[in-house]
Specification:
- The structure is a single chain.
- The chain is 40% helix and 16% strand.
- It is α/β, with parallel strands linked by helices and 310 residues long.
- The strands form 2 sheets. The chain has an 8-stranded parallel sheet with strand order 2-1-5-10-9-6-7-8, sandwiched between helices. Strands 3-4 form a two-stranded antiparallel sheet.
- Helix 1 (24-35) links the parallel strand 1 and strand 2 (42-44).
- The longest helix is centred in the first third of the chain and has 22 residues, at 90-111.
- The model has no long low-confidence stretch (mean pLDDT 98).
């Protein structure tokens, strides 16, 4: 059974007029869930997860968290870069994204599949720096928490956002217990994600980048999933699969410059669900990352959750 989590505080993170990462994205994603006929699966405003602060401090330094909180409290307009506008609710929203995702991950261990509609996104956030609209690396926090759970020895993260998840890669690239794989436009922001980035030290061979050129569409994204990602998952045999689900390679998206359709996102998700059935007892955790055209986001989420709920 699919459970979908979101929280009202996410809409209070104000990025300013005209910013693509805006509160209306939440409504578009929820509209996608409604189109899929799964509104009854939504869990709103869950209680804070008790491990939130401890897990944030496994991924980011305590000083980094304090710096974000104090910068927000001081009324500053940006944190670390112009890519990261902040408001009075930014710290709370970012922290709640982690908390809500940990609750969803705990649910996944019981009911197999969960999807989190959260903002701000997270996969660009490095241990000590915010970038690319991201403050805390939420998917990394989920991975760290899951690795502590009995029977969860290996995790596979598949990031299909149009932008490479530099933060997630860097946080796990020296480890072999979390496999990070990404398909993304390249060269493109943030400049990382070349195919020769395969991990470091004991993590060498447990990072896979699948760069694609501007203007590519369904064939590239679905083909890479079928030809590369499925094989990697079958070889790695993870105990759970985590998705950094960015929908900004959609053909309508103003930032992506790609031509992926919502139907392709559904097919990609179905391939992952099939892999999870073979190796992960069906366990798939999905987290919203990018996706900045509201209609494109709604249609893509509808296809995504339909496939997750199958």
């Amino acid at each position: 059974m699919l459970k979908i989590y979101t929280h009202s505080v996410f809409s209070r993170h104000d990025t300013g007029v005209g910013h693509p990462e805006r509160a209306e994205r939440l409504g578009a994603a929820v509209e996608g869930v409604a189109r899929a006929g799964l509104t009854d699966s939504i869990v709103r405003d869950p209680e804070p997860h008790p491990d939130t602060e401890r897990i944030i401090h496994k991924v980011h330094s305590p000083q980094y968290e304090r710096d974000l909180e104090e910068t927000v409290r001081a009324g500053s307009r940006y944190f670390h870069s112009l890519d990261n506008p902040i408001s009075s609710a930014t710290y709370t929203a970012a922290r709640t994204a982690v908390s809500t995702s940990l609750t969803a991950a705990e649910q996944m261990l019981r009911t197999k599949r969960t999807f989190v509609i959260a903002r701000p996104p997270g996969h660009h956030a490095e241990r000590l720096s915010a970038m690319g609209f991201c403050f805390f690396n939420t998917i990394a926090c989920v991975a760290e928490w899951l690795r502590e759970q009995p029977g969860i020895d290996r995790l596979f993260i598949y990031d299909f956002d149009v932008h490479h998840g530099n933060g997630t890669q860097h946080l796990f690239e020296q480890r072999d217990d979390v496999y990070y794989a990404s398909i993304h436009r390249y060269p493109f922001y943030p400049g990382t994600g070349a195919d020769d980035e395969i991990g470091l030290g004991p993590g060498r061979g447990f990072t896979k980048n699948l760069p694609v050129s501007a203007g590519e569409g369904d064939a590239a994204f679905l083909g890479a999933t079928e030809d590369e990602i499925v094989r990697l998952i079958d070889d790695y045999r993870p105990n759970a699969i985590l998705l950094s689900s960015g929908f900004d390679a959609h053909r309508r998206d103003p930032l992506g410059g790609m031509k992926v359709t919502e139907q392709a996102y559904g097919e990609i998700t179905r391939r992952i669900v099939e892999c999870a059935g073979r190796w992960s007892e069906g366990r798939v955790f999905s987290l919203l990352e990018g996706g900045y055209d509201l209609e494109g986001l709604a249609g893509s989420v509808a296809e995504h959750v339909n496939a997750l709920s199958a």
